[in-house]
Design goal:
Layout: E1 45-48, E2 51-55, E3 58-63, E4 66-75, E5 80-84, E6 89-93, E7 97-102, E8 110-118, E9 120-121, E10 129-132, E11 135-139, E12 152-157, E13 160-169, E14 174-178, E15 183-187, E16 191-196, E17 205-216, E18 226-230, H1 238-259, E19 269-275, E20 282-285, E21 290-294, H2 295-300, H3 306-317, H4 328-343, H5 361-375, H6 379-387, H7 396-401, H8 405-416
Parallel strand pairs: 18-19, 19-21
Antiparallel strand pairs: 1-2, 1-17, 2-12, 3-4, 3-11, 4-5, 5-6, 6-7, 7-8, 9-10, 10-11, 12-13, 13-14, 14-15, 15-16, 16-17, 20-21
Helix pairs in contact: 1-3, 3-4, 4-5
């Protein structure tokens, strides 16, 4: 549900990129790939319960005399996302801008996606080179040879995102190396084995040890439901509705991959009704795949397209009831997190200090973002997985974020009032 009072402006002010940092090259999370289903023999994606590994692209950034290496972690019609594992930067390359988030150690910190520069794809069709006045980012192995060694692989699971390099390939297995953690993986037809580990990891394996059962799988295709517009009661909203339809077609797959990287039943059809009068700006019946929007609201506030992302997230969530637990605040918080921290992170954002996370919406979104950044990785994704099966409890915060929910809120509130 969207209400008109959940307008947000920045909780923090992050200086924009002004030449102090080089451009960044990155790696794309998770898999919305558009290739035809792979044959098992191609062995470019391996899946297990809770995660996946896939063959990815290595990117190089050049800015003056500076060079950095990134890995592609996500690719969709809106942006290409890259990861710099050493500095923990995530970069998004759009058609006209570069956004940056993260930073570890001595690297400059960007708590939310921040615009660093304008730019454009040199090759809009393939999106393998992005240029700006400060430099460029370019994919190195855009046509990987099946037998080529040193190809980049990315693993994504609830523990985070990790980068490997292919070191050998036989008829029985592919061997991958994580140089940062000193792990070696062997991916076979039905199992993953692991060996090694240095002082940066909690567990080491002296010999190859079976860790997961899994399989070689086709690349994941984007999940794009059919979007139906109901304008019978508000034909005057047709133009705005067409933009909302296109937005849903682009962003459903992005949100789905963000919340359900290892699969979940997707919506097949989403109907968007435009009506008046209704008691709020918009509301959603997720199980039915129905969104209802106030035609009068969009007439007065045509710029409020982000509200559609909030409601679309509810359709992707489609949470059942969690026994004995009220999930209103976290459901609305996740929906606003997707809106304000993923879809429109450049929009001014502020918190109403009179509210708490229990009020949901923007306050809960900012709180969840703080938990994700300071107590992660992937806390929201883990909580979402439990919400999706009706097994959410507030004690999960202690499991996933290593502190009780009340303590986390007290610590976050102290940063807001500082």
């Amino acid at each position: 549900m969207t209400t008109p009072d959940n307008r947000l402006t920045p909780l923090w002010r992050v200086p924009l990129f002004g030449g102090a940092l080089p451009l960044v090259a990155l790696i794309v999370l998770g898999g919305l790939r558009t290739a035809a289903p792979a044959q098992t023999a191609e062995r470019t994606r391996w899946e297990y319960d809770g995660g996946s590994l896939w063959r990815s692209l290595t990117w190089t950034e050049r800015s003056g005399k500076t060079s950095h290496t990134y890995f592609e972690t996500r690719r969709n019609p809106v942006f290409v996302e890259l990861l710099d594992p050493s500095r923990q930067y995530t970069v998004r390359l759009y058609a006209d801008k570069l956004l940056l988030r993260g930073g570890k150690g001595s690297a400059k910190k960007f708590p939310k996606f921040t615009r660093l520069s304008g730019g454009a794809w040199k090759d809009a069709g393939t999106r393998l080179e992005w240029q700006s006045p400060a430099g460029f980012l370019r994919a190195q192995n855009d046509e990987p040879n099946e037998k080529a060694a040193s190809a980049a692989w990315v693993e994504r699971n609830f523990d985070g995102t990790h980068v490997f390099h292919e070191t050998s390939r036989t008829d029985d297995f592919i061997e991958l190396k994580d140089p940062r953690r000193d792990y070696t993986l062997r991916l076979a037809a039905d199992e993953l084995k692991i060996r090694g580990g240095n002082k940066t990891v909690p567990k080491r394996f002296a010999d190859f040890t079976r860790l997961y059962a899994g399989r070689w799988a086709p690349d994941r295709k984007p999940v794009v439901p059919k979007i139906v517009l109901d304008l019978h009661e508000a034909p005057e909203a047709a133009r705005w509705a067409a933009g909302a339809k296109q937005l849903c077609e682009e962003w459903y797959a992005i949100i789905y991959d963000m919340l359900y990287p290892v699969g979940h039943p997707p919506a097949r059809t989403i109907t968007i009704h435009f009506k008046d009068p209704i008691k709020t700006v918009a509301y959603t019946f997720a199980q039915q795949g129905e969104i209802t929007i106030s035609a009068n609201w969009v007439k007065k506030h045509p710029e409020d397209i982000g509200m559609v992302i909030h409601e679309l997230t509810h359709v992707v969530q489609n949470y059942p009831e969690s026994k004995g637990v009220k999930i209103f605040w976290i459901g609305e918080g996740v929906a606003d997190y997707v809106r304000y921290f993923e879809f429109e992170p450049e929009k001014p954002f502020k918190i109403d200090r009179k509210k708490t996370y229990r009020d949901g919406y923007g306050t809960a979104a900012a709180f969840l973002d703080w938990v994700e950044r300071t107590h992660g990785p992937h806390v929201i994704e883990k909580l979402n997985a439990r919400l999706a099966i009706g097994a959410y409890t507030e004690e999960l915060f202690e499991d996933y974020a290593h502190a009780p929910l009340g303590t986390l809120w007290t610590n976050f509130a102290a940063t807001v009032h500082h």
